[in-house]
Structures are given as C-alpha cells and as structure tokens.
Amino acid sequence: MIRFEHVSRVFHNDGREFAAVNNVSLEIEKGEIFGIIGFSGAGKSTLVRCINLLERPTSGKVFIGDEELTAMSPAELRQHRKKIGMIFQQFNLFASRTVYDNVSLPLKGSNLTKEQKDKKVRDLLKLVELEEKASAYPSQLSGGQKQRVAIARALANDPEIILSDESTSALDPRTTRAILDLLKKVNRELGITIVVITHEMQVIKDICDRVAVMKDGRVVETGTVFDIFANPKEQITREFVENTSNMSRIYELVETKSPVVELKPGEAILRFRYLERNVSEALVSQLSRKFDLDLNIIFGSIELIGENPIGGLVVIAQGTSDNINKAIQYLKDKNVGVEMILDGRTA
Ligand SMILES: Nc1ncnc2c1ncn2[C@@H]1O[C@H](COP(=O)(O)OP(=O)(O)OP(=O)(O)O)[C@@H](O)[C@H]1O
C-alpha cells in the first residue's frame, strides 16, 4: 500500500551533505501496523514524513497504492494528504480551542452538512472515550486524554493511513498501554494502516505486525515482529531485543562480579533461548535427569509476541564438565539456543 523506491532525503548542513534517509526501499501492506524503530537521529521521522511529503525526498519515489505521490501536482497532493492522518509525541493540539473544535477542525471545507459534521465529531469522541470532555480545553486534559483527542482529530477525514511519530513517548507505561490499545482498535475496527515510529521495542512488541530497523538513514533489517525477536540478525536489532527482557541483566551481573553469579568450581552460567510454550520446566527436569546436572535458575521469562511465546532461561549449571558439554549439545540438537556466559570449570 505504501511503497518507497530508493528514497533518499539529503540535507545540507554547513555546506556539507547529509543523508538523513539513505536509499530506502520498503513496502508497507494495507491494514497492517508497521513499526519503524531506531535510535535518535536514525532518520525515522524524516522517512515517515516522506510518506505524506511533509518532507520531499531528494531522490526516489513514494507510492500509495498505485499512485505516485512524488509525481503529483500540489492540488492532487493536498487531496491525497487527507487520506493520511498524523499523531505526534507533543499532541499538537490548539490550546485556545475546545476538544470538540480541535476534532472538527479538519472537517472545515468538507462537503458534510453541519449536522453530519456534528455527528462525526461526537462519534469520534465516543470512539476515543472522551464524549464528556467535548467542551474542555487541552490544558484541562491529561497527556493520555490529549493523545486521544489527537487520534480523534487524525481520524476526522476518514484516513486510510495513520502515521504515529513517538505518540506514546511522553506517556507513563499504563497510559502508553491504553493509547496502544486504542491504535490497535482503530486498526482492527476501521481497517486503517498504521505506521508507528518508536525507539522502544516494547511498543513494537505490543502492537506491530512487522517492523523495520533503521540505522544511519538506512533500513538495516525488516521482518515480522516474531521473526525479529526470535532471530535478530543485525547487532543493532539484537540490542533492541535484548533491552526488552531482563535476561540481558546477566551480563551486568557478571561484569560487576555480583555475588549472584559467584561460581563454585565446576559450575557454568548458561543462557537458553527457545520458541516453544512451557519448555522451561521440561528443560530443567530433562537436563537434571539425563545429565545429572543441578540447575539453579537466575532469570526466566516467556515473552508473548502476538500469540507466540519466546522463552529464555539463565541458569547456573553444576555437574561434571563432560556432562555439561553433552547437555549443551543435546539442547542445540533440539534447536534451543545455548550461550555460555561464564565458565567456571577447570577441566
Ligand atoms: N530539516 C533538517 N535539516 C537538517 N538536518 C535535519 C533536518 N531534519 C532532520 N535532520 C537530521 O537528520 C537526521 C535524522 O533525523 P530524524 O528526526 O529523522 O531522526 P529520528 O530517527 O526520527 O530521531 P528522533 O527519534 O530523535 O526524532 C538527524 O541527524 C537530524 O539532525
């Protein structure tokens, strides 16, 4: 539905050229929630602003459906932009207007009658559960409520696409969850394609179907959210994935020589990753029975990505050196990822 073909956006800073977006080709499908993740400065906002040509690519083409936006006249473009709503981290509401007026603003100049406009605004306020705040001003609302108003406003023109630029970054975790749920509802019930920019993997995990990882203006990896979590290929993707679970704390504990990871002779710290449900207990009991190991669990987690679980365990294993090796091989044969984090064996 949205297609980038070799899109670049070059800025000139102090006489030097700088590609904020560098030769990106990407396809976002109709009806999906597509995430774009990257660290600050990676080029996410610039890329997404190229979808509605708020930022005009220096080279390359942008298509929505079969129509090339980059080849349109200003009048055609104005028409097409109405199909694209946008929400921002800072909400961008008009402070001097009521909630009702903020939501009705995009309907100015539409062909709807006064009654139709009124019904539309009230329906949208109902959808975002803010009917009773219609005559409040933005300063009287919480951050979550402001973002709900912004979402209602973005929906006023019946868009096909919503672009969300860090729309939950200023919100606490509970409010973030509620706004993400609302975006999911908008996607599922109204069939609107949503493009979500974020620097938080948790947001990707919570609502996206697919994700692109950006670094230095380029898209370095794309895939379904499950594949990206189960099998991140690029170093930067691994960093994002690691940060969402407490598993990565093990490296800190090892580094700071925490008493938690103090090993007796013959012990080893191992990390397991697997993709099946309820594997943890079976793993522990099998390894102790088959290889006569004692396993002391330091961390354990099951992440649910959509409906699919991804599990992890960090354990201190105690047993003969030979049996620890055999256990590692046994797990690898069963497609369990095994990483030796600290090896206290002398043999
Ligand atoms: N109008 C501009 N003129 C010059 N440089 C710009 C302009 N807009 C963006 N940049 C630069 O392009 C790079 C990418 O910016 P962009 O805002 O797209 O990144 P981002 O990944 O969205 O980061 P953040 O998460 O911090 O918003 C940055 O180095 C930024 O300074």
Automatic annotation (TrEMBL):
CDD domains: ABC_MetN_methionine_transporter
Source species, domain of life: Bacteria
Occurrences of domain ABC transporter (ranges): 2-241
Family annotation (SUPFAM superfamilies): ACT-like, P-loop containing nucleoside triphosphate hydrolases
Keywords, comma-separated and alphabetical: Amino-acid transport, ATP-binding, Cell membrane, Membrane, Nucleotide-binding, Translocase, Transport
Gene Ontology molecular-function annotations: ATP binding
InterPro entries, alphabetized: AAA+_ATPase, ABC_transporter-like_ATP-bd, ABC_transporter-like_CS, ACT-like_dom_sf, MetN_ABC, MetN_ABC_transporter-like, NIL_domain, P-loop_NTPase
Name of the molecule in the record: ATP-binding cassette domain-containing protein
